[in-house]
């Protein structure tokens, strides 16, 4: 039974991929830095683009990426109104160190905690850093894994495109 | 179970119109393949016989999720043919280990099939998956989440855990059931919504049922664990604590002793812009909790006791990773992050980041229950232990200081120093071996050639008299953002007491990234080591050959 | 709202009932004095082979050996234990760990059965619940294997000549039912209670980190008829017919003949499962 049904089911899904609209972010309950529940439906920016980036304390390239975002954040916000959410997938061995680190680095953007990788799984993130770009309606317009020095410029070009800024 | 799942899937479809099923639905997924082609390399102890005709290892998975409004369903496929070196041979196989369907509203969420879950910090329940370790203790069963009023969350779970490819049948492992309630005072009471002091309370209980088929011992068939937690924040301070208690649970992990288990994890932090500090304390006593009492490997854990020391990212700094000793430990950890402001003498134009971290883990003190019974004798109560006493047996200590500095538009640097004490006899089971005392230093320099082209250079040194002796490592990486990377690296064990093992472990890698897809090829040698993620570690044998990683999400 | 509260209470009650059922506090004594028994009273008794894959630098192995010996106390002659020294932890090292208990037979089995962690065990090489069993699973798996109905019987006759250290062996295998599938006979020489150092990390079993005067029990010394044994009969097996195999083997002067015994087992070629096992002292 299982042997027949599930490959069929999967095939059905594959055939349909082309027809599907752009994706919303899945609704998952994660945490804010002070332990409050946070529903990912609240990730919005009143018609302006959103950058959603997965990171962790043990991931050096992730921190380099967020440092780069942070450096440009004030300018980017002024020009396009973009909002950044950084989702930490640190689990309970290091969640306590996230807030001191975020403040210690003076990061200006929103930081959320996904301690059991619920959002990471729901968004099919295999490796971090993994960054999503959402348009004003909260639809995922592009995504990118890995961070290399300078990749933030490429991302910002896309942000400007969505925001309609030249 | 499977039939039920199919039924729910069909139910989900029939409730929506056929047109909606295609138009309004979303399909997401991801794939990954990690493969390695092995070759013999006599100099580092890999012979034809070690490879044993197994020329290749391939681990792969695929996830597909289908979402239609409040309904979603998914499958996960995995194949380990054959598993990569260092993975458990029980991984070998292929099929669909996970299938699930779920319905979520603001008030209720129901999931049937395989799911992941965590109560609080995970001290009594955590089901999770870690691909790089081949670890997956997902629960196959049912979960209900209720949010009756703002600020109150209730969860109930019921099921059996994944054990590689082995099906649950004839009670071959335990059944897990759990309840969790969380109460956010400020969200519940309107007038406190924006109060400066915030309080969140939580309680959870987990029980496992496993039949006693043991002819030697009279074993408890139902074992329960309870935990309570609190998170209090006031202004710049945050205090969080969780305490867990477990009744008698004799198992292969604790050598079949009947003592109860307990664990406490507390943290106090202070942070303001530019400064953050956290102090954490932990005590663990006989807290291994598995859904099969007979298992002593890295599988079927119901709970998760987090190691709280820093997880290092640079290769030599990460060479001696610590894993929680669930049978007993006392741990503390302190971290200070400070950013020297822009424009000051030390801060320069961009500011300077400083991170200081210290952690130490000691054993707990155990005493005999009576004169005639040695500590930890199987089939006895085990031992007595004073809650506040710390043994002078140190398992692990790590002091590290990291400075990162952007010098100008072109140059960036990270410098790190680390002093380590690592009781290899306890942590890796190498009885009789002297504890490793090491000093580690590293620099990581990035030079931006243009906006998109960068060079990164890493130089590391590990200096120790013990284990494999001194190491040096260097790495050069060239990246073209956001798509290409080229890396050459070498680790050189020049201080190995065995002259023949003073080897170079060189690698050459090239990678290509486009959107959410990544392909990386690496050729070279991999030194023997331990990879830990979470509390779980995996011994990775030395290997030589070509490896490939291919990953994509959509 | 009322509906929500009702539903919440219903679900909560359900879970609490389920949950409260689950709490067994055990009071001493924790250990059962008299153990489980076998499933059959007939002339043919099902015996069980516990193979203990071990090594002299494996720190958790003495605790496993203790479980094996406790189980032998419980089941007497019905449980046969064989310690197979193989893999990384059995490699000869710097003195005092320079003894070598490895065998070609044991090394072959290690790769055949993909044994990578130590201690590991197999109980009649049974597949039910996974072939490889951690030491914590041994007791329940041995008990389950004891309940099986015997399919065959084994008889070993030994005739040892001290003067030339020659051992003559006559092994009679008899099946209780006709069988068309293939069965193999494996004959092994084991030596008991060899004193040599052993690494240990369990203080309740002995000194840590090294037990200098450790008695290694039931050590596999060699496979008498090849690493995988030999076929019992080239034709279909007939019920109650006796198949006889004879061997003449020298006993190495390094071995203490007083402590040597022969372990013989019959296994199915199809899945490797052992159907019967027997042990006899050579003297």
CATH fold-level topology of chain C: Immunoglobulin-like
Strand content of chain C: 25-35%
Radius of gyration of chain C: 23 Å
**What structural class is derived from the secondary structure elements of chain C?**
alpha+beta
- Figure out the total of helices of chain B: 5
Outline the low-pLDDT stretches of chain C.
Answer: 35-41
Oligomer: heterotrimer
Output the structural class of chain B: mainly beta
Largest interface: A-B, 67 and 105 residues
Query: Per the principal axes of the C-alpha atoms, what is the gross shape of chain B?
Result: globular
Task: Describe it.
The complex is a heterotrimer of chains A (166), B (554) and C (283). In chain A, 39% of the residues lie in helices and 20% in strands. Chain A has 5 helices and 7 strands. Chain A has helices spanning 2-16, 60-80, 95-104, 118-122, 151-163, and strands spanning 29-32, 37-39, 50-55, 83-88, 110-113, 130-134, 140-145. The N and C termini of chain A lie far apart (56 Å). Among the domains of chain B are: 1-37 and 61-115, no CATH class; 120-125 and 134-260 and 284-305, no CATH class. Chain B contains 5 helices and 30 strands. In chain B, the strands form 4 sheets. Chain B has a 24-stranded antiparallel barrel. In chain B, strands 6-7 form a two-stranded antiparallel sheet. Chain B has 554 residues and is mainly beta. Chain C has 283 residues and is α+β, with helices and mostly antiparallel strands. Chain C has helices at residues 2-20, 61-75, 104-112, 135-146, and strands spanning 48-54, 79-85, 120-123, 152-161, 166-175, 183-191, 194-199, 210-216, 219-223, 230-231, 242-250, 260-268, 274-281. In chain C, strand 12 and strand 13 (274-281) form a beta hairpin. The chains are: A alpha/beta (166), B mainly beta (554), C alpha+beta (283). The interface between B and C is large, with 61 and 61 residues.
């Amino acid at each position: 039974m299982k042997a027949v049904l599930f490959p069929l089911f999967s095939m059905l899904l594959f055939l349909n991929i082309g027809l599907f609209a752009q994706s919303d972010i899945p609704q998952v309950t994660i945490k804010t830095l002070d332990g409050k529940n946070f529903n990912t439906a609240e990730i919005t920016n009143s018609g302006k683009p959103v950058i959603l980036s997965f990171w962790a304390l043990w991931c050096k390239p992730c921190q380099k990426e967020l440092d780069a975002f942070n450096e440009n954040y004030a300018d980017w916000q002024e020009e396009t109104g973009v909002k950044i959410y950084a989702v930490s997938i640190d689990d309970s061995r290091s969640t306590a160190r996230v807030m001191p680190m975020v403040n210690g680095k003076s990061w200006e953007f929103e930081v959320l905690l996904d301690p059991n990788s619920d959002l990471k799984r729901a968004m099919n993130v295999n490796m971090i850093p993994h960054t999503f770009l959402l348009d004003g309606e909260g639809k995922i317009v592009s995504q990118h894994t890995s961070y290399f020095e300078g990749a933030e410029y490429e991302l910002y070009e896309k942000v400007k495109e969505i925001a309609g800024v030249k | 179970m499977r039939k039920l799942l199919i039924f729910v899937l069909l139910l989900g479809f029939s409730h929506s119109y056929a047109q909606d099923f295609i138009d309004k639905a979303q399909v997401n997924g991801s794939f990954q393949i990690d493969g390695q082609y092995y070759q013999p390399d006599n100099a580092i102890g890999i012979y034809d016989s070690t490879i044993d005709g197994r020329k290749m290892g391939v681990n792969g998975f695929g996830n597909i999720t289908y979402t239609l409004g409040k309904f979603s369903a998914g499958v996960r496929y995995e194949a380990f043919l054959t598993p990569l070196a260092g993975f458990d041979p029980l991984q070998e196989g292929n099929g669909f280990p996970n299938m699930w369907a779920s319905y979520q509203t603001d008030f209720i969420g129901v999931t049937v099939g395989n799911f992941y879950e965590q109560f609080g910090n995970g001290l009594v329940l955590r089901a999770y998956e870690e691909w790089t370790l081949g670890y997956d203790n997902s629960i196959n069963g049912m979960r209900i989440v209720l949010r009756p009023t703002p600020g109150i969350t209730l969860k109930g779970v019921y099921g059996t855990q994944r054990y590689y490819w082995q099906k649950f049948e004839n009670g071959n492992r335990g059944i897990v059931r759990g309840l969790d309630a969380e109460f956010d005072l400020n969200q519940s009471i309107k007038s406190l919504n924006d109060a400066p002091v915030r309080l969140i309370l939580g309680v959870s209980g987990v029980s496992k049922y496993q039949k006693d088929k043991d002819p030697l011992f009279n074993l408890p068939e139902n074992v329960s664990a309870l935990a309570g937690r609190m998170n209090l924040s006031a202004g710049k301070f945050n205090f969080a604590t969780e305490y867990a208690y477990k009744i008698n649970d004799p198992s292969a992990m604790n050598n079949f002793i009947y003592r109860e288990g307990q664990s406490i994890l507390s943290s106090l932090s202070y942070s303001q812009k530019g400064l953050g500090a956290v102090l954490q304390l932990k005590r663990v006593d006989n807290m291994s909790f598995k859904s099969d009492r007979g298992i002593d490997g890295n599988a079927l854990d119901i709970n998760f006791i987090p190691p709280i020391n820093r997880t290092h990212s640079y290769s030599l700094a990460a060479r001696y990773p610590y894993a929680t000793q669930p049978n007993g430990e006392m741990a503390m950890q302190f971290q200070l992050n400070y950013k020297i402001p822009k424009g000051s003498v030390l801060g320069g134009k961009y500011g300077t980041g400083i991170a200081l971290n210290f952690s130490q883990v000691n054993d707990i003190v155990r005493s005999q229950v009576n004169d005639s019974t040695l500590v930890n004798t199987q089939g006895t109560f085990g031992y007595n232990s004073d809650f506040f006493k710390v043994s002078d047996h140190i398992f692990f200590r790590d002091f590290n200081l990291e400075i990162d500095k952007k010098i100008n538009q072109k140059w960036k640097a990270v410098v790190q120093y680390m002093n380590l004490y690592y009781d290899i006899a306890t942590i890796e089971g190498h009885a009789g071996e002297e504890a490793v005392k090491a000093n580690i230093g590293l620099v990581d320099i990035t030079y931006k050639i243009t906006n998109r082209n960068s060079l990164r250079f890493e130089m590391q040194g590990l200096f120790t008299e013990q284990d494999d002796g001194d190491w040096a490592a260097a790495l050069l990486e060239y990246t073209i953002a956001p798509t290409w990377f080229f890396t050459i690296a070498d680790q050189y064990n020049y201080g190995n007491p065995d002259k023949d093992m003073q080897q170079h472990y060189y690698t050459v890698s090239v990678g290509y990234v486009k959107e959410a897809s990544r392909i990386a090829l690496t050729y070279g040698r991999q030194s023997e080591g331990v990879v830990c993620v979470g509390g779980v570690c995996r011994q990775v044998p030395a290997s030589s050959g070509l490896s490939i990683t291919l990953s994509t999400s959509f | 709202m009322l509906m929500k509260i009702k539903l919440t209470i219903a679900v909560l009650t359900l879970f609490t009932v389920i949950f409260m059922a689950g709490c067994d506090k055990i009071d001493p004594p924790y250990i059962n004095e008299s153990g489980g028994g076998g499933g059959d009273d007939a002339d043919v008794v099902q015996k069980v082979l516990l193979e203990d894959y071990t090594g002299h630098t494996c720190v958790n192995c003495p605790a496993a050996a203790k479980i094996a010996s406790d189980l032998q106390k419980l089941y007497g002659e019905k449980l046969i234990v064989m310690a197979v020294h193989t893999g990384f932890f059995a490699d000869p090292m710097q003195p005092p760990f320079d003894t070598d208990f490895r065998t070609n037979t044991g090394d072959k089995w290690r790769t055949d059965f993909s044994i990578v962690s130590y201690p590991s065990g197999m109980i009649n090489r049974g597949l039910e619940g996974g072939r490889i069993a951690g030491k914590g699973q041994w007791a329940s798996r041995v008990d389950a294997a004891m309940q099986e109905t015997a399919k065959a019987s084994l008889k070993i006759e030994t005739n040892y000549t001290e003067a030339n250290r020659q051992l003559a062996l006559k092994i009679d295998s008899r099946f209780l039912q006709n069988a068309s599938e293939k069965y193999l006979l494996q004959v092994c020489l084991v030596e008991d209670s060899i004193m040599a150092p052993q690494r240990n990390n369990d203080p309740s079993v002995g000194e840590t980190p090294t037990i200098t005067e450790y008695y290694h029990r039931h050590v596999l010394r060699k496979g008498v008829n090849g690493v995988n044994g030999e076929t019992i009969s080239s034709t279909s097996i007939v019920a109650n017919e006796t198949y006889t195999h004879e061997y003449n083997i020298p006993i190495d002067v390094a071995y203490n003949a007083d402590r040597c015994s022969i372990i013989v087992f019959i296994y199915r070629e199809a899945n490797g499962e052992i159907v019967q096992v027997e042990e006899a002292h050579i003297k």
